Structure formats: structure tokens, C-alpha cells
């Protein structure tokens, strides 16, 4: 498999910015969303090669006598400045492992859904790792959404996770604030959008919806792929009798992946032409 063949939409942002909230808004619209932080940790903890790499980077103390991971020790040293060189080599090996796993059938997502958008929630890495992650997927990134928030708001959220000031500081120094144009990777080009998470969840939802309604966010071909993917999950009696599939969506039009959110635009014409549904 030479290419992932699925358009990639990246959601990123500093700790506590609200990128997970934005990712959840995409989930509400039935998009496939990958939390790359959780996937990375799963690979780290289950792949035999990464266990060897972990010992090489952080020493034998990273592994308990019963061969399980010493998570308390790893948590304490992983972001420690003294281990920067070792961590960078470990993450280089991890990114290669992610690439190898993602370019073949895997348990994290369906690689065969050609053309169907894949949303990736990715922490705000330093620029080198961001570009390495990009090249792992051998495909075009359609859009990068950076979620930003006021520093105090971010720190309030992060402290609620139980992290100490030192732990927060060690993590912060490894992240890049992409809200500044000079920090944005060249590979992104003009496919970058910053969303300010400076209000309520409802206001954030409206901002995401407006972004999706922009004509350059989803092209017509991608809309067709979204539609086909959603329709493939529907019972045959639904497919044969629906005029706009959002009417049959239990969570209403607001969860529809169609960016225009209007039944008399793209999707109704698609349904009429493909399912030959007559007007009432």
C-alpha cells in the first residue's frame, strides 16, 4: 500500500486549548476521528519493538520485574529535559512504527475507505515531529485546524487533569503555538485555520460549522464519499425511502456531515440521482 488514499484533516492545539472538544464535534457529525495521542500510547505499550526502544531510551527502570511498564517512572522522565535526546530518538522510532501500521489494515481505522475523510487529533508537536508525522502518511493533508485559547483558561483546564506546574512546564516547552503564522509548517500552506476557543461550547460548535461550510473545506467529490460511507451503514429500507438522510438521523440535522446542512442542496440531488427517490 503506497498511500493512505484518505484525505487527512488535522486538529491540533496547545494543551488545554480545546482540541478534544473540537474533535468531539466532528464525532457528533459521524466523522471518523483518531486520537493520535491515545493511539501512540497504545502502540508504545503493546508493540514489542517499542518496549526495546523504551528500555534503550529510558533505561531498565522503565520496565518492572514482571515485564510490565513502570508507568510512574516513565511519566516522570519522559518529558524531563535531561532525556530530550533519548526521547527524540524514541519518538522517531514511534513515528516510523505508526507509519508502518497505518499503511496496512489495522485496528484503528479502515484503510479501505478511499476518499472518505479521516480526522486526526494531534498534540501540538514541535515542528520537526509535525513534519515527520505528515510524511508518515504519504498523502495530502487537506486542512489543519489549530485550536487556540487564552493562557489562563488553558492552564485552568490542565491543572484539573492533576498535572503539577513542573509537569506542565516540561510539556509546554515541547509544543509549538501554530496560531502564529511564523510557526506554521511550510507543508500546510494555505490549508490552515485557527479557531479561537474563547467562549462557550455552543459558540465553538458554531465556529466549526462555519468552517465546514466553506467551499474549500470539503469539495464535491469528498461530500459524495461522506454520503456514500454514511449510506452504506443504513438498512436497505431506509436507503430506498429517504429523500435526505439527515431526516433519519436520530441526532438531527446538527449531526449531519454535510457542511451546507441543507436538504435541498447537494445531498437531495445526490439521493435523487442515485436512489431514484421521487418527490412527495
In DSSP terms, counting alpha (H) and pi (I) runs of 4 or more, how many helices? 12
Total DSSP E strands: 5
Determine Rg (CA atoms, Å).
Answer: 21 Å
Give me the secondary-structure category: alpha/beta
Shape: globular
Low-confidence residue ranges: 243-253, 259-280
What string, H for helix and E for strand, traces the elements in order? EHEHHHHEHEHHEHHHH
Distance between the termini: 46 Å
Task: Characterize the largest beta sheet: strand count, sense, and whether it forms a barrel.
Answer: 5 strands, parallel
Question: Helix share of residues?
Answer: 40-55%
What share of the residues does DSSP label as strand, in percent? 5-15%
**What number is the mean pLDDT?**
80
Strand order of the largest sheet: 2-3-1-4-5
Amino acid at each position: 500500500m503506497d498511500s493512505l488514499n484518505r484525505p487527512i484533516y488535522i486538529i491540533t492545539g496547545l494543551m488545554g486549548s480545546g482540541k478534544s472538544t473540537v474533535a468531539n464535534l466532528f464525532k457528533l457529525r459521524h466523522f471518523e476521528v483518531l486520537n493520535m495521542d491515545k493511539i501512540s500510547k497504545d502502540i508504545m505499550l503493546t508493540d514489542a519493538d517499542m518496549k526495546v526502544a523504551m528500555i534503550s531510551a529510558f533505561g531498565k527502570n522503565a520496565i518492572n520485574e514482571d515485564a510490565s511498564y513502570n508507568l510512574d517512572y516513565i511519566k516522570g522522565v519522559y518529558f524531563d529535559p535531561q532525556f530530550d535526546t533519548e526521547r527524540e530518538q524514541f519518538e522517531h522510532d514511534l513515528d516510523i512504527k505508526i507509519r508502518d501500521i497505518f499503511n496496512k489494515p489495522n485496528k484503528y481505522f479502515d484503510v479501505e475507505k478511499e476518499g472518505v475523510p479521516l480526522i486526526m487529533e494531534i498534540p501540538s508537536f514541535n515542528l520537526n515531529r509535525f513534519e515527520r508525522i505528515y510524511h508518515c502518511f504519504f498523502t495530502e493533508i487537506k486542512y489543519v485546524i489549530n485550536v487556540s485559547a487564552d493562557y489562563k483558561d488553558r492552564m485552568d483546564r490542565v491543572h484539573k487533569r492533576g498535572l503539577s506546574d513542573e509537569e506542565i512546564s516540561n510539556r509546554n516547552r515541547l509544543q509549538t503555538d501554530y496560531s502564529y503564522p511564523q510557526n506554521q509548517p511550510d507543508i500546510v500552506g494555505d490549508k490552515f485555520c485557527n479557531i479561537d476557543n474563547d467562549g462557550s461550547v455552543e459558540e465553538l460548535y458554531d465556529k466549526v460549522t462555519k468552517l465546514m461550510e466553506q467551499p474549500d473545506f470539503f469539495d464535491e467529490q469528498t461530500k459524495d464519499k461522506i454520503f456514500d460511507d454514511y449510506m452504506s451503514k443504513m438498512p436497505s429500507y431506509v436507503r430506498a425511502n429517504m429523500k435526505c438522510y439527515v431526516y433519519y438521523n436520530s441526532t438531527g440535522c446538527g449531526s449531519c456531515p454535510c457542511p451546507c446542512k441543507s436538504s435541498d442542496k447537494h445531498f437531495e440531488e445526490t439521493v435523487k440521482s442515485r436512489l431514484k427517490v421521487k418527490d412527495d
